[in-house]
Amino acid sequence: MTSGHDTADIKNHIKVYMMVFAALAFLTIITVAASYLDLSSGEAIFLALAIASIKGSLVASYFMHLISERALITWILMLTAGFFFILMFIPMASLIDQARLG
Amino acid sequence: MNIPYTVEERPDTGLYNAKLGIWLFLASEVMLFGGLFSAYVFLRFGAPEGAFHEWGKELNIPLATINTMILISSSVTMVMSWASLKLKDFKKYKFYMGITLLCALGFLVIKYLEYTAKFDHHIYPSTNTFYAIYFTLTGLHGLHIIGGMVVLFYLWMPGSKMWHSKPEQFTNRIETVGLYWHFVDLVWIFLFPILYLL
């Protein structure tokens, strides 16, 4: 059986889930609203990705419980993130090369 | 023979096996979608200045916003179904899991409407590089939704019998499928702005 302490913990978690839900819904509206602002392409990309990153962090930290997860998972994800950024860098590298060659 | 570490944590990893397994799978999924995000960046830079933004204007932002809300809601109901099992409330688990499935179905119906509207306007993956990557990314994401729904339905209906014999293992199964579901939501959180808004 779930102990009294566990039950209280889960009930507290539920409150946090509801707050995260409200934050995600609010940030979604902000993302759409920001897309109608008169921003340069670079500014718009930065703002949209920044908001998406905040939303993604909320999902990963609270819904996926990464905030209280074992270190092993964190290490696996850090390694994955490293490879992910290398993947993202490859198209950039081709641009640099293109500029160098004129 | 019993499968080891379905409930208790392995001493070396500090995790039950399925949790480590799903996280390794999700790491491979990051690389799968990462490759396509990388292709998106490559195609965007390769297209004429501002072309991706112009081509993307054909997409339906209100429908995609509703879909984003639906997927966020399904993530909440997913985590609530796990929390209900932790509180030993099987009826609430069934309720929240049912809502999660409904949300997933709603997402797919809206996606279907979006796709058919594009086809009616003779917009296909071959139309331009934006639609090539749009259909690839959203199609792969949609396949993940369908795959998730199959597992969610199993755990909602026939698979839920396990709750009566092995409640802790069943709760861990819901946590594991929940991690997958939240990942699918997380991917959409990035797909929405890069495809519809930028």
List the helices and strands and how they pair.
The complex is a heterodimer of chains A (102) and B (198).
Chain A: H1 4-35, H2 41-63, H3 71-101
Chain B: H1 17-46, H2 51-56, H3 61-86, H4 90-120, H5 129-156, H6 162-165, H7 167-197
Explain what you see.
Chain A is mostly helical. Chain A folds into 2 domains: 1-69; 70-102. Helices cover 84% and strands 0% of the residues of chain A. Chain A has 3 helices and no strands. Chain A has helices at residues 4-35, 41-63, 71-101. In chain A, helix 1 packs antiparallel against helix 2 (41-63). The longest helix of chain A is centred in the N-terminal third of the chain and has 32 residues, at 4-35. In chain B, helix 1 (17-46) runs parallel beside helix 7 (167-197) and helix 3 (61-86) packs antiparallel against helix 7 (167-197). Helices cover 79% and strands 0% of the residues of chain B. Chain B has helices spanning 17-46, 51-56, 61-86, 90-120, 129-156, 162-165, 167-197.
